[in-house]
Amino acid sequence: MNLKDFEFWFIVGSQYLYGPEVLDTVATRAQEMAEKLNASGKLPCKVVYKVTAKTNAEITDIIRDANHDTKCAGIITWCHTFSPSKMWINGLVNLQKPWCHFATQYNREIPNEEIDMDFMNLNQAAHGDREHGFIGARLRTPRKIIAGYWQDPEVQERIGKWMRVAAGAAFSRSLKIMRFGDNMREVAVTEGDKVEVQAKLGWQVNTWPVGELVEFIDAVKDSEVDELMKEYEKLYDFATDNIDAIRYQAREEIAMKKMLDREGCCAFSNTFENLYGMKQLPGLASQHLLASGYGYGAEGDWKVSGMTAIIKFMTEGKTGGTAFMEDYTYHLAPENKYSLGAHMLEVCPSVAAGRPRIEVHPLGIGGKEDPARLVFEGHEGNAVVVSLVDMGGRLRLICQDIHCVKPIMPMPNLPVARVMWQAMPNLQTGLECWILAGGAHHTVLSYDVDAEQMRDWARIMNIEFVHIGKDTTTVSLEKDLLLSDIAWRLK
Questions:
Q1: Is the dihedral of CA 191, 192, 195, 201 positive or negative?
Q2: Phi (first) and psi of residue 420, to 5 degrees
Q3: Dihedrals φ, ψ of 381, to 5°?
Q4: pLDDT digit string (tens) for 220-272?
Q5: Rounded to the nearest 10 degrees, how much is the dihedral formed by the CA atoms of 381, 415, 333, 469?
Q6: Burial class (CB in 10 A: 0-12, 13-18, 19+), 422
């Protein structure tokens, strides 16, 4: 499914106490709110008003239906009037979809001349939402709380951001990842418990032999390569005379895509150590697949591959870009400290500042022919880098705020895509915090999500979340990690 194919069910709480006229008004207003939210242009998915629930049975039934509807990516609840919270228990304890508690009210302002007891009985959101909030807290049910007036653009934007996260959770639960061979030998952070990941995140992570991929490469037709070369010419500048190298990358891309699509996989990983039988390491091939929405992880890093695919899905329609990334080296001048992110071949061109160039250069490792790859600089802007790590018994999602800049030097002899950024709160403290938290050298870099969305996703998936931002210190983070470790060991 695409992001726009998902919908969110709007469930409004009330009770029979107020009579049929009030209930009819609540239902009419709820339908109007759903329609205006959909017309706002701020939401990536449709809001579908379902019911003004007045009883335990109605709530239980609608939540059961939501659980089993594949198009429903989550529920949005609101208590227009007073909805006693005990009637929500049976439904909420069985809820399997993400939940947003929308604390709002139909009217923007208190109408001075019109306010009377009839008005008060009809407009009890301040009353109802607190009762509704208590039962969520009492049941310890993970939820997103968004408060504010429903027609304010910033409130609508927050709902839209949460929708992307909830849809990303649905995408995660059906994600399949194809590993071409195993991970790089002796690397710790690319290891992980695939059983735990499938239980928590839904990912199916399995391995296919490189020999089968080579068979697919050999079976690619020249006509198929010709068609993909036309696409390359539209998107990229050819800065090499070695057209044969580019055509081989096209063969690799076509072959990998056929295998991925055959198995329903949206992400893949490989490593230079075991691509036996291939003439080149996949550079341009991987980059163009990434630009098409697939996730990727180098050195067999299937965790970053999965996260890349999920964040790309969550950010469908956004234009900032999301890429597989690696921290490569630092610029430690006293007044200007920067991180330089890159990889030997596979950074996604969605983050490029300009039109990427296809170049062919020696690689220095892998023992293959010189591979074609895209070379470009990343664009300026605020972004995050995200790392999913296995802490042994639990998963931890680490998110750091960064500000990407135009590289401060041209680096003419560096034949790879690169992004330069300032880490928050600064390079030294940010680096110490990242290492303290166990963050990997591979990350997902995205201009299109923020830490709030990553926290929401971790909450939905029931995994630990660590945020490194402008106000983080090593002392505060060390304390937070200690308390988090105790809390998660008790779960």
A1: negative
A2: -115, 140
A3: 140, 165
A4: 999 999 999 999 999 999 999 999 999 999 999 999 999 999 999 999 999 99
A5: 30
A6: middle
